[in-house]
Amino acid sequence: MKLAELGEFGLIDRIKANVAASPSVLLGIGDDAAALVSTPGQVTLITSDMLLEGVHFDLSFCDPRTLGRKSLSVNLSDLAAMGARPRHFLLGVALPREIPLEFMDGFMAGMLEQAERFGATLVGGDTCASKGGVAISVTALGEQRPELVLKRSGARPGDLICVTGTVGDAAAGLNELMRGAREGFLASRQLDPTPRVEAGVALAEAGVASAMIDVSDGVLQDLGHICELSGVGARLELSRLPLSDEYRAACGADPYALALSGGEDYELLFCIPAAREAEVGRICAGLGLRVSVIGEVTGGSTIELVAPGGTPYTAPRRGFDHFGSD
Amino acid sequence: MKLAELGEFGLIDRIKANVAASPSVLLGIGDDAAALVSTPGQVTLITSDMLLEGVHFDLSFCDPRTLGRKSLSVNLSDLAAMGARPRHFLLGVALPREIPLEFMDGFMAGMLEQAERFGATLVGGDTCASKGGVAISVTALGEQRPELVLKRSGARPGDLICVTGTVGDAAAGLNELMRGAREGFLASRQLDPTPRVEAGVALAEAGVASAMIDVSDGVLQDLGHICELSGVGARLELSRLPLSDEYRAACGADPYALALSGGEDYELLFCIPAAREAEVGRICAGLGLRVSVIGEVTGGSTIELVAPGGTPYTAPRRGFDHFGSD
Known about the structure:
2 copies of one chain form a homodimer. By secondary structure, chain A is α+β, with helices and mostly antiparallel strands. The first copy, chain A, folds into 2 domains: 7-148, CATH 3.30.1330.10; 160-306, PurM-like C-terminal domain (Phosphoribosyl-aminoimidazole Synthetase, Chain A, domain 2), CATH 3.90.650. Helices cover 33% and strands 24% of the residues of chain A. Chain A has helices at residues 3-6, 8-16, 64-80, 101-118, 169-178, 185-191, 197-206, 219-230, 245-250, 257-261, 277-286; strands spanning 25-27, 34-36, 43-52, 85-95, 121-129, 135-144, 160-164, 211-214, 233-237, 268-272, 291-298, 303-306. In chain A, the strands form 3 sheets. The first copy, chain A, has a 6-stranded mixed β-sheet, sandwiched between helices. In chain A, strands 3-6-4-5 form a 4-stranded mixed β-sheet. In chain A, a hairpin with a 6-residue loop joins β1 and β2 (34-36). The longest helix of chain A is centred in the middle third of the chain and has 18 residues, at 101-118. The model of chain A has no long low-confidence stretch (mean pLDDT 95). At the A-B interface, α1, α2, β2, β3 and β4 of A face α1, α2, β2, β3 and β4 of B.
């Protein structure tokens, strides 16, 4: 069955049928706007990301279900980086009229299973025809007490710089996918990232972090955002970068270049006072999540990279810029 | 200057510099998510719309500033249809790398002037490269007391059906634009609609309407949404449809077809108890806005169309469906 046979309103009804009610949703899918009840004492955290076929994803690499999961995950990762609990989301999707209905069924199944896992309810959005490829826009809303929200600003000289999980996997996975791989650890890190929602909330509620961001544009660029907004510098010890065995096997002669510049790992990068290192280790261990100290915040204005043995290292590439020339 | 020279983060800084602070925005553009403070006792109304080049707009018809205004207006119109006051919005925009920076400057100037007029603050979003045309996604947030929110459900048999302004202009304007016109009343109704924000809020706060929607897909289709969700039917008297002189001059032999099926007028279509007709007239007159009673809600399940003289009328076309066959 093609979308054109179902029609726009048939598609909306089909999506709506799979969405459960939630007490905070006064009015969900099907009116001009959704009506949401806020939790007293909490602020709303809101973020929006577009994903375009041919730019952010390639339908020859990923099945619809995985794409549905990732489209929500990248937004939940932004909420996690603020320490917010996901609550609601909206989905805008532009589809070629001739796309099979199975595409949308798979996409929604993936998106709604990820939503359920992380406690987010679909409340509205927009469906329209595309004359180009598939275009997706997700807006996600979360909540947290205002004094616990973790910003990019707030890092102080002397703070330790921490990162969850391993870095560089998603970029190495994209290289493998482009060379024809369709499965494996690295490909799955690129296609189906796990937003670190529980860790973001736990770190915020423990009040241990001074600044936080998710690694979407690459460690170096994302740490650069923290430094710029906090008015600080940083020293990274490359020997401490958490690298997976699969990444090490795939990364070639220089293991640091892609781990520093590769985006889309969706790990959390955050700063903490040195005295709280053990507490952070316990929080992450309790969630079964690796955490590594990779450097220190400095009073300078640059990011100093230190290779094993103490020699300075110059990154060949900084990170991802949508309009940049490389 | 091309976008590629400015870069993604330069573009974000350039947009941010033109956005004023607002007391309800704890954290605006530049972090992983924005942090918004809700007004106690109010619910959040949230809506999202995508606008795609070649589907929703044609850059040979419209200048960037007008496109910026319309991209926000269509979302504010959805908030107006709920009776909500606009508060915040997010903008996602995908741009070809070679687009001149002047495009984005004009687009943002139009969007931010419309935002200021209607009291909405830009708080975040996403910028990315497009390999196709320009793609825009706006998510708008408003507030209202929960008991005043106007839904599509709620119309009762015997209610009068009202519409603000005139209908069919935007569809007639699109026809003129496609025939080469670049200005005039009808073209401007298509390219630069005015969301009926003040009227939506005033009608909600007066508690006079039983159901409301904005005319985005066409009077017949949008009234159909009210009927379906309210479990009622309707009788429309075509002689009472408010038609502009310019529309009448352009519409050809049948003045009703396009007025019933043409979308994008962004007028408010709403139902009221018959006893409150004079009050609604005073509210709209106070805003300098025409309002017309065009029919009555019935206990049936269909929309009956009555031509002048009392004969039944069959609409040649229902309204806009993104995946439909016409």
